[in-house]
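Deliverable D2.4 — example input (C-alpha cells):
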C-alpha cells in the first residue's frame, strides 16, 4: 500500500472492532485513531457542500466537541480552519484531514479509522477514498449481546433494535464484499481468537503489508493496551478464548431465545454453532409477546 491509502474498520459494537485496531495499530505503518468518533455520522447530518466559513467552522467545532475527539494534536482546530480557508469544505475532506493529521502525530504513513457500523457508508468511503480498504468484523450475535447486556443499564437496553443492527451489518458484509471484492475484507472475530497469527497474517496479506510479530502484543492504540474482554482484567497481548461461549453463562434464557427467534437463520448460515437452548411452546409464546410489547422498542422506532 502507498502512503496515500486509508483503512476503515467497521462492524457492530462488541464485534472485535477494538481488538483488530489494537493489532493493526501495533504495526509500524498504521496510525489507528484510538476511539470511536462517528465522523461518517456527521456526513449524514450536514449538507454535502458547506460554502460559508462560519457554517463549516461550526461543523468542525461540533466534531471536536465530541467526547472522544481529544486525541488530535494541539492546535488542530486552527490548522483545520487555515487549511479549509483555501480549499472547499466537505465532510469527506474533513475526515481525510482529521485522520491524516493523526497519522502525522504518530509519524506513521497509513491512517486508519475504526467506527461501529462504518459499513453503512461503504459507497461513500470508496467514492471519496478510492484506494482505501475496509475490514469488516463480524461476531456471533449471542456473544455480542452478552457483552452488551453485561454493560448496559436496563432502560438503555433495546434488544430488538440491536438484533436488527446485527442483521443489517451481516447483510452489508455480504453485499459490500460483492461490490468491492478486492478492497473489502470480512473476518470473523472467532477466527482471530482461535488462530491469532494466521488471522493477522491474512489481514496483512489483504493490506499488502508485511506481518510484524509485535502486532500480537496488543499495544497499538494511544492511551490503551489490554486484551479482548470487557468482563475482567486481561493482560496485554492475551486473547481470552472464553469470549467464544460467553453467552451460555451470562445471557439470560429469554435473550438467547430472542436471538434464536430473530437471527437463527443467519446464525446457521454463517456457521456458528446452534444454541442448544430448549424451551416449551408456552414459554416461547410468552417471550415473543414480551419482546414485541417491550416499551423500550419505542426508542428503536424513533431512531
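Example output (designed residues):
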Amino acid at each position: 500500500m502507498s502512503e496515500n491509502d486509508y483503512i476503515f474498520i467497521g462492524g457492530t459494537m462488541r464485534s472485535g472492532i477494538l481488538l483488530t485496531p489494537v493489532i493493526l495499530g501495533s504495526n509500524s505503518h498504521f496510525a489507528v485513531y484510538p476511539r470511536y468518533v462517528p465522523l461518517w455520522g456527521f456526513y449524514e447530518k450536514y449538507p454535502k457542500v458547506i460554502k460559508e466559513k462560519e457554517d463549516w467552522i461550526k461543523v468542525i467545532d461540533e466534531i471536536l466537541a465530541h467526547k472522544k475527539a481529544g486525541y488530535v494534536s494541539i492546535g488542530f482546530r486552527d490548522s483545520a480552519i487555515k487549511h479549509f480557508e483555501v480549499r472547499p469544505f466537505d465532510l469527506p475532506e474533513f475526515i481525510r484531514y482529521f485522520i491524516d493529521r493523526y497519522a502525522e502525530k504518530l509519524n506513521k504513513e497509513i491512517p486508519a479509522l475504526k467506527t461501529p457500523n462504518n459499513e453503512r457508508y461503504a459507497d461513500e468511503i470508496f467514492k471519496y477514498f478510492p484506494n482505501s480498504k475496509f475490514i469488516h468484523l463480524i461476531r456471533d450475535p449471542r456473544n455480542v449481546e452478552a457483552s452488551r447486556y453485561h454493560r448496559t443499564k436496563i432502560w438503555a437496553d433495546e434488544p430488538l433494535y440491536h438484533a436488527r443492527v446485527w442483521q443489517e451489518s451481516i447483510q452489508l458484509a455480504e453485499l459490500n464484499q460483492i461490490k468491492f471484492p478486492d478492497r473489502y475484507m470480512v473476518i470473523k472475530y472467532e477466527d482471530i481468537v482461535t488462530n491469532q497469527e494466521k488471522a493477522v497474517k491474512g489481514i496483512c496479506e489483504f493490506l499488502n503489508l508485511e506481518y510484524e510479530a509485535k502486532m500480537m502484543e496488543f499495544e497499538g492504540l494511544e492511551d490503551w493496551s489490554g486484551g479482548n474482554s470487557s468482563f475482567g482484567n486481561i493482560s496485554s497481548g492475551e486473547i481470552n478464548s472464553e469470549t467464544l461461549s460467553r453467552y451460555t453463562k451470562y445471557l439470560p434464557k429469554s435473550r438467547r431465545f430472542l436471538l434464536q427467534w430473530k437471527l437463527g437463520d443467519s446464525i446457521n448460515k454463517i456457521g456458528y454453532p446452534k444454541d442448544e437452548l430448549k424451551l416449551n411452546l408456552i414459554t416461547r409464546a410468552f417471550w415473543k409477546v414480551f419482546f414485541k410489547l417491550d416499551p423500550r422498542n419505542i426508542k428503536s422506532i424513533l431512531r
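The longest helix spans residues 159-179.
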